[in-house]
Amino acid sequence: MLKKELRNVSAVPLTEALGKLGRMDSAAFETAWNSIARITEEELGSDDVDRVHVLSLLKDLRARPELGALLAGFATTAIRTRKDIILEGLLEAFGEELMANDAVRSDLNGLVAQAEPPPSIGLLLAYLARHLDEKLWNTILSRADTSTLPQLLAFQAAHPAVNSLRPQGTELDALFQSMLDAVLSGTSPPDVTAQLLAKPEPFISPAALAAAEERIASCVSLTTDAVLRDPSVDVTPARSAIALLHARAWSGVRPKAFVLARLVPNSLPNVVIALDGEEERDAVLHTLHDLLLDTSVLATPAQILDTALRTTAGPQRVMNLLFPPASELERMRVEAARVPYPPSYAVVEPLAASTSTSAASSVSVAKKSVDSHGKTAYTRLLEALVPFLCTERSLARENPWIIAHVALLPSTLDVDTLAAYLLAPPDDGWHIRVADAITKPAGSLNDALADVLVHIVRNCATPREAVGLGKLLKRLLNGAEVNEAEAWTRAARSLERSTPLASHAILRTISSTALEPPLLARYRTELAATLAGVPPAKCNTEGLRLLRALNAAAPDASGDAALVPQQRAVFLMKTIERWIEDADEIDEEVESGMTELFVSLAPVLQSVPGKHWETVLDLIENGLESTDMGEEDELLSLARTLRLLASVIELAASTKMLRQEYWALREKKIMALVLRLLEAQGSGDKDSAARAACKELLISLAAHIPSASLDPDTLSKTVHLLASNNVAVLQAAYPFLQQAAAKRTEYLVIESAASTLTVEATAAEDGVRTPAFDEPVAPKIELPVELLALVQLQLEVELDDGADGELLSTWQSMLFAWMLIFDCFVDASAKVKAGFVEQLRDLDLVELYFAPNVLGLLGVMHSGGGGSSARKSFKLDVWAIEEFFLSLYDPRTTLSPRLLSAHLFFRALESTPTLIRGWFLKSKDRQLHTAVSAYISSYFSPPLIATALQPLRALPSDSELKADGWALRVGGGGSEALLSYTVDEQSLEVALRLPPEWPLKGAEVREVRKVGGIPENRWRAWTFGLAQNAAGDGGVLEGLRNFRKNVAGHFDGQVECAICYCIISVTDQSLPTKPCRTCKNRFHASCLYKWFKSSHASTCPLCRSDIL
User: Fold this and answer.
1) Ranges assigned E (strand) in 245-335
2) Are 644 and 619 spatial neighbours (Cβ–Cβ below 8 Å)?
3) Which compartment or compartments is the protein found in (predicted)?
4) How would you classify the pairing of strands 1004-1009 and 1074-1075?
5) CA neighbor of 119 nearest in space, from 103, 143, 99, 95
């Protein structure tokens, strides 16, 4: 009973009770104490004891002097019986008391040293806490495993003194390595390993620690390198490794971790890597330098630069470590400049034309590796360097050599900003000093920018360098004076043979300005005179060199300056004619150069008749016949031919001699060749800048194609122009395609109207004539399948201002194609419109493509529902949706596509209301019904009603609806048309009202007045037909015309009653339907009744024959 109660008793009352008992009766106390000691000893030895409660009880009896002997006895018994867990508890609770007992301490020392069976880890740690011993610590380490390691780490945290101990060997190294492997492989959480790495000295050897650092650094480095090149790489190992950085901040790991966190978003969520010291920042910059030069890295130069700036290293440090030195950049620039342009690039940049005399042309250039955006390592460097120097302008000013690299980059905001800063307007006389220095032996001008520019000019050896030089000079010469342009012309003249590309760049830049220095005009004449003396045998060598120089010096076409005087131009043309006649073979480049030259010569010779015009037109015709839009290397010759043709057409329009004697004779054939090129499909790839430029030139010439050259199939053959990714091509092509659409519609209208051919009766051999018969020969009324293919796209991606170019291109091609479809409805007859509508309905284009895409773009398809896809519909309050000017279409913003979509929906409701109404009624989405109905009634119905009734107001007074007794007016607040017909001073009138939901809701017909003689069922059929026709694709005007035909047809052929001389009886509103079989006159029944009654006879009042 005592044992049971002792388990539940609180130590505090027991201590108080023992104290009172001892004061009252020492013998009783001794008996009680012995009983408690015996029971406690038994409890500690049993297997089911609540040891925590017993130890707590003993702790509370600590004040009793008898406890020491009791504890010693307990410890001795536990040592003898190997109750390690009891000893562990006793040592933790009463370690000082037990270790003070020599006998107990001696027994404990013997137990700890015992090998078999070994003491528990907990007992050893409890002993170690009272007796710090390195040998014992190593014994503990040798027995540790993954289950006991957390116990050791907890012991380390509770007893900091253990940190002074060191492993004698590699007791824990193998375990640590296996744990590290598990963490890095992602199969184990990093918590325990991180704890171990926080203070590893007591646990693992220095060698194992160094190996771990190397392993972690390698893991982070390898994973970072891999994921920067392949986004599918698993970053778990690096994430786990970096998690260990919180435990031990190794400088060898942090730089790579910093790069990973910055360049691979979401790779290390909620992890902040802070660099410590200049060494780590430099390590990051070195890494970023390598990544910038590596084209296999997915990170963009902008991302790399941003990461470099976030290291907080100074600008000069970033400049020195992120980017190569100037000498290395110059080597890369020279190498990059040797890469030839595509053959067609000279279409948009004349200085890019290849030159066989270039020193670089014979050098084999190895193909450079490019990144995922098609950029070389050199381009990547510049795309980081230029923005960096835009913000660090002092560094830019200290390094003017950068301008040579900027010249090779395409124009961007940063490039233009940096160029404007470095090429700031120089002081007076600067241009002359630089130009004079170019003509003299090498020497410094003590002006960093001037020295760099002179170096660029003197070393201009490739087309890329020539293009770059042209860009620099264009900015430098902006605002220059005539005398400064004269100095540059002098420099270009001196470079003509030594550095021809630099000379051409200078000449083209000066010619593009309005300066026109006198020396330039003299130089042109000098070149023309020299060229005129070149014999046919040298046309491909000396002639080509001079052609290039003269074309470079040619004045801008928009200016008033002439290339050469007229007489000099005639001599020059005669020389070229001799080349054509006498040369064995003229190179293609020479022919192309001649074509470019003729563009400048044509205005000079426009009033001079002669064989030279035949030569020019022959060159144009041959150029158009021999070129193919699909061949990239032929685009330059084609572009020059088209520019020459445009010049000739413009000159012929203002010069009678040229127009009548030359152009009129060749126009039809040449323009047919232009049409053939327009019909060519091309390569099927995206338009390059050169091909887009050629298409624009072709399309600009399309306006001059004679209408007779177009046929009904022209639209089918040229609609591929709408597939261009270049909006300028689309805008230029649309008017021509609109004309082709009108041609097709006109053909279908005429052919469908004349679709029934009457075949004359023919005589058979037996002399019997066969009866005449009608054979229907109707054209197939349909829109071109090539056009419909462009709109059969389901674009589920929402268009926003961040949409990529390919998506924008797809949207704009589709929208332009729908515009052309609705253009085919313009001036179409009812029969042709019906054919088009039937085709659109059969293909289900409105339901599948038009409504989802167009209304989706306007936000109507999404505005009715909730959820993440819901968004507000596009407001049209301030926009006039009845018109849209495609010349103002801007693909850089979503406003233009949305406004064009609104206009398209307006045209769809106007041209094909039955299709839109059918789609609307077919839809089962009630929210969509509400949204569409509200949108149409708010923005589309008012202008549609005005548009539908406008033709009624514009009808002339002699039109069929306003003549011969008919009258038409618009009333009802501008939403109602009233048509009336007067016969015999009696009028019928109907009102056709367009409701506010028009055209989703049909027209309403109201009977205002009705005359007699019209059966009720016929009248109902007429008014029902009027409502149906008005709501159909024919429109309101067509419905009213059909109603008039019905009424007029009813009264057509009706003669006046011979008795009352009226068509409609004033008595019963009937028509004269009672005929006389003899004289064929007709009478009202009521009039005959009166006649019979008054005459007392049933004879005809006219012929007196018996009517009955």
Assistant:
1) none
2) yes
3) Cytoplasm, Cytosol
4) unpaired
5) 143
Rounded CA gap, 128 and 152, in Å?
11
pLDDT of the residue at 758: 38
Which amino acid, 430? Answer: W
CA atoms within 13 A on the CB side of 74: 34
Spell 838-872 as b/e; 16+ CB within 10 A means b: ebbbebebbbebbbbbbbbbbbbbbbbeeeeeeee
Q: Among residues 908, 797, 807, which one has the least CA distance to residue 853?
A: 797
Q: Residue 250: which residues within 8 A CB-CB, separation 6 or more? A: 213, 216, 217
* Among the ranges given (78-92, 443-457, 579-593), the one the predictor scored with the smallest mean pLDDT: 78-92
As a residue count, the chain comes to: 1108
CA dihedral 738, 739, 740, 746 (to 10 degrees): 110
Q: What is the pLDDT of residue 42?
A: 58
Q: Is the peptide bond before 117 cis (omega within 30 degrees of 0)?
A: yes
pLDDT level of residue 609 (50, 70, 90 thresholds): very high
Contact 994, 948 (CB under 8 A): yes
How are the residues of the chain apportioned to helix, strand and coil, as percentages rounded to the nearest 5?
A: 60, 5, 35
Token pair belonging to 619: 């060159």
Chain segment 691-729, per-residue pLDDT in tens = 888 888 988 898 888 888 889 999 999 998 888 777 888
Residue range 163-188: mean pLDDT, rounded: 85
Closest by alpha carbon to 471, among 509, 527, 502? 509
The reported pLDDT for the residue numbered 770 is 45
Q: What whole-number distance in Å separates Cα of residue 404 and Cα of residue 409?
A: 10
**Side chain identity at residue 581, one-letter code:** E
Give the residue with greater pLDDT, 1068 vs 713: 713
Q: What is the pTM of this model?
A: 0.70
| Cα 342 from Cα 906, distance rounded (Å) | 45
Orientation of helix 542-553 relative to helix 500-511, angle to 10°: 30
Give residues with Cβ within 8 angstroms of 232, minimum separation 6: none
pLDDT value at 363 more than 50: no
Bridge partner residues of 769 (DSSP):
763
Phi-psi region of 871 (alpha: psi -120 to 50; beta: other; left: phi over 0): beta
Structure tokens at 581: 């006649």
Mean residue pLDDT across the chain: 82
Dihedrals phi, psi of 1044, to nearest 5 degrees? -60, -40
Q: Which element (helix H / strand E) includes 976?
A: strand 976-983
- CB 336 within 8 Å of CB 411: no
328 is written with which tokens? 């290395």
**pLDDT at residue 465 in the model:** 93
- Taking the C-alpha atoms of residue 480 and residue 199, their distance in angstroms, rounded to an integer, is 72
Q: Is 85 exposed, middle or buried (0-12, 13-18, 19+ CB in 10 A)?
A: middle
DSSP track, 889-939: --TTSSHHHHHHHHHHHHHHHHH-HHHHHHHHHH---HHHHHHHHHHIIII
Reported as a pLDDT band with limits 50, 70 and 90, residue 29 is low
Residue 1074 is inside which H or E element, if any? strand 1074-1075
φ, ψ dihedrals at 1106, nearest 5°: -75, 125
Radius of gyration of the chain from Cα atoms? 50
- pLDDT for residue 1011 is more than 80: no
The two most distant CA atoms of the chain are separated, in Å, by 171
φ, ψ for residue 17, nearest 5 deg? -65, -40
pLDDT tens-digit readout, 455-494: 999 999 999 999 999 999 998 888 889 999 999 999 999 9
What does the pLDDT average to over 519-544? 93
- 389 contacts: CB under 8 Å, gap ≥ 6: 395, 396, 399, 402, 418
Calculate helix-pair angle for 611-626, 635-654, nearest 10 degrees. Answer: 140
Report CA 898 to chain centroid distance, whole Å.
Answer: 16
Three-state secondary-structure class, residue 989? strand
pLDDT at 638: 92
